[in-house]
Structures are given as C-alpha cells and as structure tokens.
C-alpha cells in the first residue's frame, strides 16, 4: 500500500480521465520517473524531513556521496513514519543482546567498513563482492514500508536501498538455484550477545527466501534509513527488508548470500519450528501458538495509549505479493 506497483488488471487511465488532464498527469508521471533517478524530484534532505537524525552523515565516503543525491519518497497519506529515535532504540539484533535497548547500546562496537559479501552456490558469478561493488550501478531509492515483528509490534520506516532482484540478476543464478540463504556476520569480540551466548542461538543468524520472493520488486537490500546510512543496530551496512513477512526474515549485517537447491534451515525456524515457519508471511488469521496475530501495537505507544491496530494480510501488501503463494495452504506453510 505504501508503494504502488502497477498491475496489469488496472484499467488504463485514459479510459476514465479527460484527455487534457491525462496528458498533464502523464508529464507529471514522467517527471516522477525521472525523479526516482535523482533528476527532478526533491532530493532527500534528511534533517528537514526526519527530526532526530544525526546532523552529519556517517558511513564510508562513497556511501555518504550516494546518500546525498537520493530522491525523497512520497509521504504516505494514511500512516505516519515512526520517529527516528524509536526505530533506532527499540531493536531486535540478538548478536548484541536480547533486550530491546541492547543493540543501540552495544552495536556501536561493530566495525562495518570495509565490508564484503561472499556470494556462492548455484550462480555463474560467485565471488567476494565489496559493498562498493555491490552498490555500483544500482539506483538507491527511498521506500517507506511497514515493519511487523512477529512479537506483535510494528513501525513504519523509510529505508534506502535497491531491489535485491538487481543483485540476483547480476550474479546469474543457474537452473538449480531455487532458494537464497543469507548469513549475518559473527564477530565475537565486537558482538556482546554472541560472546555472552544465551545458549539459544546457533550463530550465525541465518535467513532464507524462495528465488521468486527474492526477485519480487518489493524485496530490498537496504543500506540506509531516514536519509542516513543504517545505524549498526539496524543492520549496517547491508540488510534485507521483506515488508510482507515478519521482521525476523529481514536479516541484518549480511556477509554471505548462497544460492541453493533446497529450502535452507533458518535460525528461528530451527529453534522453534512449531512457532516460526520458513515463510513467515504476516497473517492475521494464523495465530502464533502463544498469542494472536490479529492486531499489532504501532510504535511508539504507551501503557495508556497502546496504539493497537488490526494486522493486515501480508502486512498490507497482499495486492502485490499474494500471487506468490497461490495454491499454498498458509496455515501449514506459516
Ligand atoms: N542478524 C540478525 N538479524 C535480525 C535479527 C537478529 O536478531 N539478528 N532480528 C530480526 C527481527 S526479530 C526483527 S523484528 C528485525 C528488526 O529490525 P529493526 O531493529 O531494524 O527494526 O530484524 C531482524 N533481523
Ligand atoms: Mo521480530
């Protein structure tokens, strides 16, 4: 809902719009398209748009330069963006501890530059790609998405990134590639949660997508949020964002992407298979065994104003993604 993907089923605008209006709107659309290339739309002035963002950009210099020229996404009419301070101080990133404040307290210890990602498996162009390499030739864009955690809270976050599909096409998967398997960095000296081992998680944190899910235009690789590079607690320098799935699918600080033949075993699914599935599509009709998923708390909220709202099928992106799951029983494949 927050971003529109055109559908073949939609009737052509010129069937219903007077010609003059249609033409001027067409010019506007062309302008907007140019804008997404940073030509015409207002460039993203993060400090004006998002109160509380750091006054000075951070991250490697090549990324700062790229972030300076991004076009601003249209502000959603029906939703307000979660304040920067909430999105960066209420996090899940178990590598830095299990508490919601632990990542913002401790992730600063992580060194994220230089960074590279190993790409291997069923692809014609495997290799170790530097972050700069990964970003070369892609257009970074701002996308405002809802994020729904399986625990029952949600936010609205303006990400900066590019479609994962572009990277997938570049490395040329072969006919055996059916799934992508993602791995987060493990660096004990810089990751307090890994050191103190909760005894629960077998590091590295692993996530996965079916190839068609990875190729879907809503699926992003993000390098920034709120007009800035990603804070470490949000998964710097490179993370996945899959807005129609529960947040745990959106793996942070990625160091490896493998193209594989079989559905990979993922972290939460392995730990508690009866509670967390591989697909993890947001679904208000399928309860978690210990709580309902019918509603969510939109952050920020308070004890007295919990800000509860109904959870939407596929987190509100059903129109765009439902076809990926046609014929599947989403109660079984949760
Ligand atoms: N490596 C790694 N990625 C992770 C997690 C984690 O613990 N480790 N937590 C996930 C969960 S449960 C959620 S809800 C989102 C939270 O992203 P945010 O902190 O940027 O809002 O990150 C996901 N990605
Ligand atoms: Mo989550």
Layout: helices, strands, pairs:
Layout: H1 19-35, H2 46-49, H3 61-67, H4 84-89, H5 102-106, E1 116-121, E2 127-130, H6 131-135, E3 141-148, E4 153-163, H7 164-171, E5 179-184, H8 192-195, E6 206-210, H9 211-215, E7 220-225, E8 228-229, E9 239-241, E10 254-260, H10 267-271, E11 295-298, E12 308-310, H11 318-321
Parallel strand pairs: 1-10, 4-11
Antiparallel strand pairs: 1-2, 3-4, 4-7, 5-6, 5-10, 7-8, 7-9, 11-12
The structure holds ligand MTE and molybdenum atom (MO).
The ligand Nc1nc2c(c(=O)[nH]1)N[C@H]1C(S)=C(S)[C@@H](COP(=O)(O)O)O[C@H]1N2 is lined by residues 91-95, 147, 149, 184, 205, 234-235, 247-248, 250-253.
Quickly describe the structure.
The chain has 334 residues and is α+β, with helices and mostly antiparallel strands. The protein has helices at 19-35, 46-49, 61-67, 84-89, 102-106, 131-135, 164-171, 192-195, 211-215, 267-271, 318-321, and strands at 116-121, 127-130, 141-148, 153-163, 179-184, 206-210, 220-225, 228-229, 239-241, 254-260, 295-298, 308-310. The site of molybdenum atom (MO) has 6 residues, from loops.
């Amino acid at each position: 809902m927050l971003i529109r993907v055109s559908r073949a089923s939609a009737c052509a605008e010129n069937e219903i719009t007077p010609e003059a209006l249609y033409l001027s709107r067409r010019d506007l659309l062309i302008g907007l398209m140019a804008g997404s290339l940073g030509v015409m739309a207002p460039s993203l002035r993060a400090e004006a748009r998002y109160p509380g963002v750091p006054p000075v950009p951070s991250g490697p210099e090549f990324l700062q330069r790229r972030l300076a020229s991004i076009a601003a996404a249209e502000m959603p009419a029906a939703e307000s963006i979660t304040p920067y301070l909430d999105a960066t101080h209420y996090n899940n990133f178990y590598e830095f501890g299990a508490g919601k404040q632990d990542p913002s307290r401790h992730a600063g210890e992580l060194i994220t530059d230089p960074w590279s990602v190993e790409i291997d498996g069923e692809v014609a162009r495997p290799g170790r790609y530097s972050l700069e390499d990964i970003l070369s030739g892609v257009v970074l864009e701002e996308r405002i998405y809802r994020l729904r955690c399986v625990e029952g809270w949600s936010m609205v976050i303006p990400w900066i990134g590019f479609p994962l599909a572009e990277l997938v096409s570049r490395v040329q998967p072969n006919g055996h590639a059916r799934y992508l398997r993602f791995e987060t960095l493990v660096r004990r000296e810089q990751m307090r949660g890994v050191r103190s081992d909760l005894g629960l998680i077998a590091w590295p944190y692993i996530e996965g997508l079916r190839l068609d899910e990875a190729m879907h235009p809503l699926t992003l690789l993000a390098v920034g949020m709120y007009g800035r590079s990603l804070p470490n607690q949000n998964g710097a320098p490179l993370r996945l964002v899959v807005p129609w799935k529960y947040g745990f699918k959106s793996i942070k600080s990625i160091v490896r992407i493998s193209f594989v033949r079989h559905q990979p075993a993922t972290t939460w699914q392995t730990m508690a298979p009866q509670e967390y599935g591989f697909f993890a599509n947001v679904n208000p009709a399928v309860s978690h065994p210990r709580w309902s998923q019918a509603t969510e708390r939109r952050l920020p909220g308070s004890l007295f104003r919990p800000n509860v709202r109904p959870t939407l099928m596929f987190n509100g992106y059903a129109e765009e993604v439902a076809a990926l799951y046609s014929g599947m029983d989403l109660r079984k494949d949760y």
